[in-house]
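#struct-pred
JK: can someone run the complex with adenosine monophosphate? inputs below
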Amino acid sequence: MTIKFSDLGLSQPVMQALDMQGYDTPTPIQAQAIPAVLEGRDLLGIAQTGTGKTAAFMLPSIDNLRKADNQIPFKSCRMLVLAPTRELAGQIAQSAKDYGALAGLKVHSIVGGTSVNKDRNKLHRGTDILVATPGRLLDLIDQKAFNLSGLEVLVLDEADQMLDLGFIHALRRIRELAPADRQTLFFSATMPKQIKELVSGYCNNPVQVSVTPESTTAERIDQYLFMVQANEKQSLLEMILSGRHPVPGEFERVLIFTRTKHGADRVVKKLGQVGIAANAIHGNKSQPQRQRALDEFKRAKVPVLVATDVAARGIDIPGVSHVINYELPNVPEQYVHRIGRTARAGADGVAIAFCAEDERAYLKDISKQTDAEFDRLPLPENFRAVVEGVGPTKRAHPNQTKMKRVKPKPRGASADMRGGVKSDGPPKKKHPNRKGKPSGTGQGGKPGGRPQGNRGGKPGGRPGGKPGGRPGGGRSFQKRRSGGGGGQRRGGGASRQG
Ligand code: AMP
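RT: done, structure tokens with the ligand placed:
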């Protein structure tokens, strides 16, 4: 029997807000967590983003706050949500406002990189719900501008990320400052030892809800791999984004990960030089710059975003068709987080890893710890010659011929989501865990478009863009340039003009 929201015991105002959001079925984590949270139990949720966990903790908490009907405490809050990054905090605060639209609760968020004085002023009279990054919260507490005495519910979201970002001491301090009789809702995508210790300090006999096996990469994401030298990655990226070396999947939004801020800036700059508009998002960017980059990405005005791990944590943008790991993360869990930016809200996704010789150990760790299965893709023909600027007609480097051809996906052609061009409009809200094709992307569905991708492993098909064997491949993100990009496909006028 399918569980409905109406089975979970939520109040009328919250149900109405859900209706306004267009949600009709609870996700597995919502179905499991909401009744327990409504009962006042502590919760340990092992879940990645994209599972609907924000609503899982927010909806019942809104109801509990309404029922308790306590006064807003002076310089304090009734519910505190701790999040690792500014972007995630912003999104959670927005969700709290959306879900609590009719509940009359006051919601604020405070994050680093903005004016502390403004935060002090806005929290002077307290708030019902506060979403905060740990550092900024402690700044205000240390200045005696805020305290946790009124706290009824404490949520730790993406706790593993907070640890990775060095917030362990902050989290220990916050635990000491929070009243003992609070309810704690603890979420983490992974469960390393340090997290387990933190859970036992924070939670009291929590109900455990797990929606994905620990560290297992999402099923809906097809993962591909290029073995490519570090100094050739940029050329490969340019060829992929310009459509000169098609990869599986239809481009909608492409999120590219680098390990460093400097690396992200460099990729953006070089893409710009070949007419591919991209933005970077990382810790050295100001908050308005980060926000603008996210907005442009969300609206698909600039559908290529280059990010570092930290900055991308909060990105919940439906319609990320591809995640490209330009550099592999040195922490396997980070890989899970990165590729989780695609396949949001029920869609499928494509993750492509660029692995250089010196990253083989990272790749091994990722495969081992996340059970990721990569399909290896061949480099473009004559790639070395193109990189060296010798011209596309030169023979390829002999090493390239050693590359294995992509093997057929065992899941078969039915897994292919990219038969047509997706619209840029707001995506339909679907059950985030729903499998299957998004609407309007049937096989070969694009009017006048190309045939579907080769993820089904068409015999003889390969993604290298050989004449006669055209794979699914994305649109080009490159501005039209005279004479550029031999074989560049325009996909029925669907090209992005950055
Ligand atoms: P989260 O895991 O909280 O980041 O949520 C992932 C995405 O799923 C967000 O864009 C939510 O708006 C959306 N979402 C959450 N719950 C539901 C639901 N029950 N039905 C449809 N969409 C949902």
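RT: quick notes.
The chain has two domains: 5-210, 221-387.
The first helix runs from residue 12 to 21.
JK: thanks, will look after standup
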